[in-house]
Specification:
six-stranded mixed β-sheet, Nucleotidyltransferase, domain 5, 3 domains, 19 helices, five-stranded mixed β-sheet, alpha+beta
Length: 504
Amino acid sequence: MDYTTNVGVYAQLSLISSEPDEIDQAITNRFGSGCCEKGYIIVPSGMPEFKQTSGAKIEEEHKTYTIPVAGQKVKKVRVRRTCEISGTLRAYDPNALYVCPNCNCPMNKIGSTPISLAHIPSGDTYVKITVEQHRLKCTNPQCPSPVFTFKATFKADGHNITTALENYTVSLLAYGLTLKEVSHITGLHKSIVKDIDKKRLEELYTVNGEGKALKKPETYSEYIGIDEFKLHDGHKYATVIADLVTGIVLFVAIGKKKEVVYKFIDFMGDEWMKHVVAVAMDMNSDFREAFQDKYPHIKVIFDHFHIVKNFNDKVVSEVRKDEQKRLKEEGDEEAARELKGSKYILTSSRRHLKEMDEDARLGKTIRREATLFDRPAIKAKGGYEERYNELIKGNELLSACDIIKEKLDKAFQYKQEKRMRDEIKDIIAICRGTNNTHFKWFANLLEKHIDGITAHARYHISSGIMEGINNRTKTIRRKSYGLPDDDYFFLKIIDASHQRTRFS
């Protein structure tokens, strides 16, 4: 497929001069007098084989539909404007005599068949090209192929559209527009737009453009990331693997078990895998075991984000609920109310609380005024660190949460693996010293994954890019209102990771 978009609306004129008077006369001879004053714009069509034979014919189709407005059904009219342009093929000369390409016998003209092709729209007006495809028949009754048709070479394969419109559609899709948006702009059915997009993606990312096997990356990757995402309802998951330096998605497959990693390894090959130094992931033990089983030299890294998230979700949040329940049972309703709605503050780092207090001191606006809807501006509020100190004051478990959060933040800043390991061991000791079930769970988690956690000091990589890819994947699915074709969906994920601009 040619990805060069030839933008144009009306057919190309064969003008022998660039002088304004001669151009006006040529247009008048073709379309009649006064057409230049009736809103005609003559530009190249991108189809030099097409010869326009009549002026543009504008048709309007009115469709009435109802929408609910303020509890009432209101009728709306949607207008679809179509510009039809008729012509013929330049290759056919009605005055010429033709001979059969097979047996060199004379050929007779036996008629023509009109074909209508959608073309690049002009603003909100869809354009349709109607061209006559003339047929000739060989006079030799023994000719193996007696009928010859002058075919429109500017017709796209598989669809009744011009190659110019196909290329324009490809440009819109590459820019990131959804199937529905491109369908509205081009006037094509959404299924046709999807076919064009899938063909584009297969040519870019599959071997020989056949859509049967992914292309392998041309370069090696030292640092990769792996993460799973929800594919469909009913606990269906898929796994994505990406280069952490470039952000390019290398592999996508259904499932979140060891088999996915083994498929990735088989796909990449031994030579490629030998260049991988480290892989960042969450606490998925299947992923870790699969990489260590096949390539022990690859270092597994558990990043700061997942450790802190586990601590906040499974320790801080649970301790807060337990303490609130305990205070209620002891009759201290006021202290219990103080803990209500405090999850955000308790799970935030002290550094973040100080930043919010500083915003309040500077009078920063966090939401601008909306005069049309009478919504006042909102200024940043302070006192977060002070309230945080009040919440943990006198509460041993919440104070322990504060200490551990600070020590985790400090641990992940170390560049020496031994110092980081010592810090993590201190955290484990503090957790076990609380004699609390939630803290003990976190201590076991750290102890079980300590090698992957402390490896961060040497490599300083994280799966943050993987979280970004997962968010982008959710956006693709949400904007498309779901994509049941998994092959197409996975190709869209790979394509989005390349982050091409409109003109790339």
